[in-house]
């Protein structure tokens, strides 16, 4: 029985007068990887940022639509935005560890949530670094600066940092586009393992990546959701002509 | 064949121009270096005369508390500079400490809290504060701050505290605008990452933004201190100009710069009194060198961390 963890309906987003998303209906299943694909500027990253309300930070943005996350409306006035972001974590395109030690990076989310107990922090750091498949590479240098790591390692530390607050959903905004192929493969393998415990929504420019790791794939074009279905179906037998054009590389 | 050879071997017009430009730039650079070097040598030569030709012990100069170059005691002129050195440091440190919270608060308003209002209102205000001549600050200090001090603490109102308040306004724009630069150089990614982890805005500012910007903010503080240490006119107008060891913050005192500006026109070149003033100038110069050194060290340490 597949459980739907997050439902969105008629999501519209405006920058001032310009409408960037024209009503997106999309649901996400628990413990699945959903990939959002589409050409640059199609709104897939913008949509992703609606889910943990990161667009709130940008001046002049208005978001409308229904967001049902575990039965609650994410955009309700009394919804605790800090709480939301603890439950829906995010990993960004550029690896962006803080200029602190690896350990301090990973436990940052817990510390701002008020966790002070050293044993709890230690355990969370170890668990999440293991989940992000980077523990073996950094276990002897947890007190060193995270900025001294390679790009791929930094990105996995960022994933560990997002995992440490034990979110339900992890949003990834093109997590491998700034990395070399080898590091990308490692991140992909990590994501496939994480699926056991978390729901993953990832934006990607890399169609092969979507085909390799995603259970569901959603195709965006110019602010519209053209089609969303099982990854196999999207790649083998898409319903819409735009989708097949994009997937066969005729545009985008 | 020979023609081509010739044209390759002779210099083209463009390369001659390039050479000429280089020579002019180097001459300008050399000229400036020469001037700076000349200033250093001149001040050092004059400033050291107190110790070489007037035979004042350097420890008596730095540690003595009596400043009265006209009077000689046991054959040595009374040129103890400690009151002025203390006055300068007290005013500098107090003014900077007072300005720091205001500067950081204002800078945060401009970068993180209300960037729109920051660029529209605070930025022009800061630029205005920089542009006001120091004599105007001194005049306002003289007519507003000093009487205010008098009415609260009694006495004349002149003193280190009055100087502190005047300097506070003067170093505020320096520290603020440099802190703004430091905060702006903190990558936006850090802020989004922190917020995405469930941190509040204050936690983000406190734990990530300010911490990352610390070397830059320290540089801003040192710059502010250098400005405060060297400011002469405004301080001289409100500090009271009594070359006494400061016993209270509201009693008349003096700084290195205030003694220099009041005294330098009333002494004759080559006399003990004049030499003593040059020695004070030498201390000022060495201190500004020290401030510069501190700025470089902080900047270097900041880079290493990254």
Automatic annotation (TrEMBL), chain A:
Write down the InterPro entries for this protein, in alphabetical order: AAA+_ATPase, ABC_transporter-like_ATP-bd, ABC_transporter-like_CS, P-loop_NTPase, PstB-like
Q: Which residues form a coiled coil?
A: none
Q: Ranges for the ABC transporter domain?
A: 6-247
Q: Which one Pfam family would you cite for this protein? A: ABC_tran
> In the record, what terms sit under GO molecular function?
ATP binding; ATP hydrolysis activity; phosphate transmembrane transporter activity
Q: Name one GO cellular component term.
A: membrane
What keywords sit in the KW lines? ATP-binding, Nucleotide-binding, Phosphate transport, Transport
- GO annotation (BP), single: phosphate ion transmembrane transport
Please verify whether the record's keywords include Metal-binding. Answer: no
Q: Provide the protein name.
A: ABC transporter domain-containing protein
Native source species: Secundilactobacillus malefermentans
TrEMBL record, chain B:
What cellular component terms from Gene Ontology apply here?
Answer: plasma membrane
Protein origin, superkingdom: Bacteria
Q: Which GO terms describe its molecular function?
A: phosphate transmembrane transporter activity
Protein function = Part of the binding-protein-dependent transport system for phosphate; probably responsible for the translocation of the substrate across the membrane.
UniProt cross-references to PROSITE patterns, sorted A to Z? ABC_TM1 (PS50928)
Q: InterPro entries in the record, alphabetically?
A: MetI-like, MetI-like_sf, Phosphate_PstC, Phosphate_Transport_Permease
Q: Which Pfam families does the entry mention?
A: BPD_transp_1
Q: List localization entries.
A: Cell membrane
Q: Which UniProt keyword terms apply here?
A: Cell membrane, Membrane, Phosphate transport, Transmembrane, Transmembrane helix, Transport
Origin species, per record, is Secundilactobacillus malefermentans
Annotated membrane topology is:
Multi-pass membrane protein
**Example GO biological process term?**
phosphate ion transport
Q: Where are the transmembrane segments?
A: 21-45, 81-104, 125-146, 152-175, 208-229, 276-299
Q: Does the keyword Nucleotide-binding apply?
A: no
Can you say what this protein is called? Phosphate transport system permease protein
Entry similarity comment: Belongs to the binding-protein-dependent transport system permease family. CysTW subfamily.
The residue ranges of the ABC transmembrane type-1 domain are 85-295
């Amino acid at each position: 029985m597949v459980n739907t963890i997050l439902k969105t309906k008629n999501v519209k987003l405006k920058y001032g007068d310009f409408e960037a998303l024209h009503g997106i209906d999309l649901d996400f299943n628990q413990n699945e990887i959903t990939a959002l694909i589409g050409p640059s500027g199609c709104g897939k990253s913008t949509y992703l940022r609606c889910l943990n309300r990161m667009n709130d930070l940008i001046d002049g943005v208005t978001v409308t639509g229904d967001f049902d996350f575990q039965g609650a409306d994410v955009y309700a006035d009394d919804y605790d935005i800090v709480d939301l972001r603890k439950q829906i974590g995010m990993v960004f395109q550029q690896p962006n560890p803080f200029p602190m030690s690896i350990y301090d990076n990973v436990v940052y989310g817990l510390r701002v949530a008020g966790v002070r107990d050293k044993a709890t922090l230690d355990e969370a750091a170890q668990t999440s670094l293991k989940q992000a498949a980077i523990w073996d590479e950094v276990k002897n240098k947890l007190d060193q600066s995270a900025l001294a790591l390679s790009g791929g390692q930094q990105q996995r530390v960022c994933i560990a940092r997002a995992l440490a607050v034990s979110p339900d959903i992890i949003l990834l905004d093109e997590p491998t586009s700034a990395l070399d192929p080898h590091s990308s493969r490692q991140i992909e393998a990590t994501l496939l393992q994480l699926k056991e415990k978390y729901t993953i929504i990832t934006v990607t420019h890399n169609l092969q990546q979507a085909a390799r790791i995603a259970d569901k794939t959603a195709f965006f074009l110019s602010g519209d959701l053209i089609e969303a279905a099982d990854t196999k179906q999207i790649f083998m037998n898409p319903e819409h002509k735009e989708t097949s054009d994009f997937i066969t590389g005729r545009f985008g | 064949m020979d023609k081509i050879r010739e044209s390759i071997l002779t210099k083209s017009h463009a390369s001659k121009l390039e050479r000429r430009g280089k020579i002019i730039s180097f001459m300008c650079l050399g000229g400036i270096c020469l001037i700076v070097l000349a200033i250093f040598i001149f001040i050092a030569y004059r400033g050291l005369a107190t110790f070489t030709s007037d035979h004042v012990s350097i420890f008596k100069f730095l540690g003595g508390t009596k400043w009265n170059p006209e009077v000689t005691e046991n054959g040595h002129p009374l040129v103890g500079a400690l009151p002025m050195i203390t006055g300068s440091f007290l005013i500098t440190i107090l003014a900077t400490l007072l300005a720091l919270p205001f500067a950081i608060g204002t800078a945060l308003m401009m970068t993180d809290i209300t960037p729109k209002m920051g660029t529209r209102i605070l930025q022009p205000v800061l630029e205005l504060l920089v542009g006001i001549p120091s004599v105007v600050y001194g005049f306002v200090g003289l007519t507003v701050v000093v009487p205010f001090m008098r009415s609260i603490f009694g006495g004349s109102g002149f003193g280190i505290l009055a100087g502190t308040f005047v300097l506070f306004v003067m170093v505020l724009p320096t520290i603020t605008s440099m802190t703004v630069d430091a905060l702006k150089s903190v990558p936006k990614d850090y802020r989004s990452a922190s917020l995405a982890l469930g941190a509040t805005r204050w936690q983000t500012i406190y734990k990530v933004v300010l911490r990352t910007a610390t070397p830059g903010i320290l540089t801003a503080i040192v710059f502010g201190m250098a400005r405060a240490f060297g400011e002469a006119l405004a301080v001289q107008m409100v500090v009271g100009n009594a070359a006494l060891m400061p016993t209270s913050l509201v009693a008349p005192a003096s700084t290195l710069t205030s003694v220099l500006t009041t005294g330098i026109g009333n002494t004759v070149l080559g006399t003990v009194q004049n030499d003593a003033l040059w020695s004070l100038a030498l201390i000022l110069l060495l201190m500004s060198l020290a401030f510069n050194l501190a700025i470089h060290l902080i900047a270097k340490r900041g880079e290493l961390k990254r």
